[in-house]
Design goal:
Strand order of the largest sheet: 2-1-4-5-6-7
Helix content: 40-55%
Number of strands: 15
Shape: rod-shaped
Length: about 700
Amino acid sequence: MNVDLPVPSEGELYKRIADRVGVDSDRIAEVFTSHGLELTGSLPAKRELVVHRLICEGRKTGTTGNDGPFTVDMGLGRGPWVISSSINSAGKSSLLWALSFALRGEGFDAFCRPEAVSWFRFVRVDIEVGGAAASIRLYFDKPGRPSVRLLTADSISDLLVLEGRVEGRIGVRLAATAEPSGVKGLIGRFMMERLGLQPVSVWVAESNAPKDEDGNRDSTEQVHGWASFFYAIALNSASDSLLLGPTLVGQLPVKLMQLFLDVPYAPELSRLTTLRKAETQEVSRVARRAKEDARARDEQAAPLRKALEVAQQRLRGLEAGRPDVGNLVAAVDHAAAELAPCQAAYQEAAEQHQAAKKSRQSDQRAERRAKQSGAARLLLGALDPEVCPRCDHDIDDERRAAEENEHQCSVCARPLPSLPQDPQAQADALARIEARLAASKTAEDSFAATLATATERLTAARTTYDQSVAQLERIRSSDWFALFDKAQREVDQLQGAVTLSTGGRSGDTPPALVAALAAAKPAQKTPAEQGPDDETLLTAAAEVIKDVVDQHSRALFSELNDEIVQIAHDLGVTNLTSVNLSLGGQLNAVKSGSKHRFSAFSPVDRLRMRIAVVVGMIKVSRRRGIMSHPGLLLIDAPTAEELTPQATYQVLDTLYRTGNKVPGLQMIITSIEEAVWDIYPKDRIVTGTDGRELF
C-alpha cells in the first residue's frame, strides 16, 4: 500500500464535510470556530529528546556492606547505551527509575525498586528537548516526593559544564519551580509544549454510574498526556500484557501509535470526538436526570395516586347510586297536575250536592209543615220562600212560628187571610209537594254519588301527590348529597396533590390554555429553512476526518507491519510469519502458522515485540523525513529471561546495531550479560568499579 497518500488541506476537508451535508464550506468553518475547534493540517513534526547527562546523589541504607553516600555522574548522548554490572542489585534499574522520574515527573513503575526509592536525595538530568537545552533538578526531601527546579540555557554545553547542584552561569536561567504536588504537572507541560504534543482523551465508563435504557453507563473523560505518552519511551515490562501504554481503554495504544507516526488529523479527530462525546453525554445526563426526577416524583406520588384511585372509585360508586331527583320532581309535578282537576271536580260536586241537599231539606220541611200546620195547609198552593224575595233576608224560625201560631205571613208579617178549606185542593197541593220532595231526594242522591266518586278520586290524587312530595323531600334531606360533595372535594384535592408532586404533569391542561401557549410560540423554521444543526455538521465532520485518519493509519500500519516482523526476527522471535495492526490496536500476529494474540506471546517475546513496534515506528517516521517519535528508548533488562547465550547475544547485538543505525535514536538499556562487553564499546557502557555496584 502506498504510504505517501496525499494529505487534504483544511479547505479540502471543509469542502468534503460541506458536500456531505449540503451546506457551504463557510458554515462548517463557523461551526468549528464556535466550538473551539480548528483544522490546522499536519506539519512535519520534529520531536527530539536527548539525554546528555544524569547525576544522582543520595545515601544507601539497609544494604549488606554497601551503605553510605553516593554520587553517580553519567555522560550520555545519541546512540546505544547500556548500564551494566556483573552482579544483580547493583543499581541499574534504579538509575533508569531516577532518569524516568526527571523526564516524566514521576517514577516509572517498571523500573522501580522499592528499597532504593528512599536512597535518592538529588537527581539532575540535562537534556535537549525540541531543540531547547534544559536541566531538570529534583530535590527529594521526602522519599519519592521531590520538588523541582527547571533550568534552561542557550546551549546544552552551558549546562553540561555545571558541576553537581551548581546553577549559576551566564546563559543559564531558572525557568520554573514546583513543589512536590506540582512536579508532574510542570514537567508534563514542559515536555508537551517543547515536543508539540496535544493531550489525548479517552472515555471510561463509570463503574458505579447507573445504566441507561440501552445498558450504557455514563463515561468519565480521561485525559492522557505526557505521563502516558512516556510508555513509548520507557517500555512496559516483559510481564505486562499490554502492547503499548498504560491501558487498553479507549484504544489508547492505537492512538499512541497514530500520534508517534504523525497520522494526519489524528489529534483533531481526538478533540472533535471528545467534544461530541462530552456534549452527547451531557444531553444524555440531562435527559436521564429528567427521567430520574420524574421517576422519583412518580414514586413520591404513588401513595397519592393510590388514594386518588380509591377516592375516584368511591365517587363512581356514589354516582352510580345517584337518586333520580329529576324523575321525582316530574312525578310531583304530574301528581299536582292530576290533583288539581280532582279538587275542582270535588268542589263542584260538593256544591251541587249541598244545593240538592238544601233543596231536599226545603221540600221536606214543606211536606212536614203541610201535614202538620194548619197555616201551611192554607198556603199549600202558595210560595214557601226561604228568604225575602226583595232583600234576601233569611226567613227564620221565629217568623215561621209566628206564621204557624199567630197566622202572620212569614214574609210580610201580616195576618194570613181566611181561606176556605178545599180538601181536594189541599190533597193535590200535598201531592205536588211530595212529588217535588221525591225529585229533590233523587237529585240529592245523584249528587251524593257524584260527590262520593269525586271524593274518592281526590283522596287518591292527594295521596299520590303527598307520597311524591314526601319521597322528594326525603331524598333531598338524605346524606347522599353530603357524601357526594365530600367525595368530589376529596378527588379534586388529591388530583391537585398528584399534579404538584409530579411537577405539574397533570395531563389535564385546558384546551384554551394549550391554544394560547401555542399562539405565543414564535414561528419555527422548517428543517429545509433552518438547515442542518451543529450536531449534524459535527457528526459529518467526524466521519470525514475519521475516513482520512483511518486511511492514513492503515497505510502507515501496513508499512509498520513489515518493520515489526523484520525487527522481531532480528530480536529472536521465532516462527513469526506476519502481523497486521488493526485500527482497534490488535497486533493480529501469525506465529507457527496460527493466529497469535499479543497476550499469548511469552514474556520475553512480548518485550521483543514491544521493542519492534516502537523501533519500527521510529524507522517509519524517519523514512518519511519527520521525527514524530522523540527518539529516546529506555529498556530495562531486555535479555533477563533469555535461556541461551546465543539468543542473548542476538538481542543485545540487534539493539546495539539498531541504536547506531536509526538516525537520531538514543537507546539506553540495562543488562547483566557478559555479551555486553563484547558488543558495546567501553565508552558506551556505564558501570561501577570492577563492573559491580554502580553506586
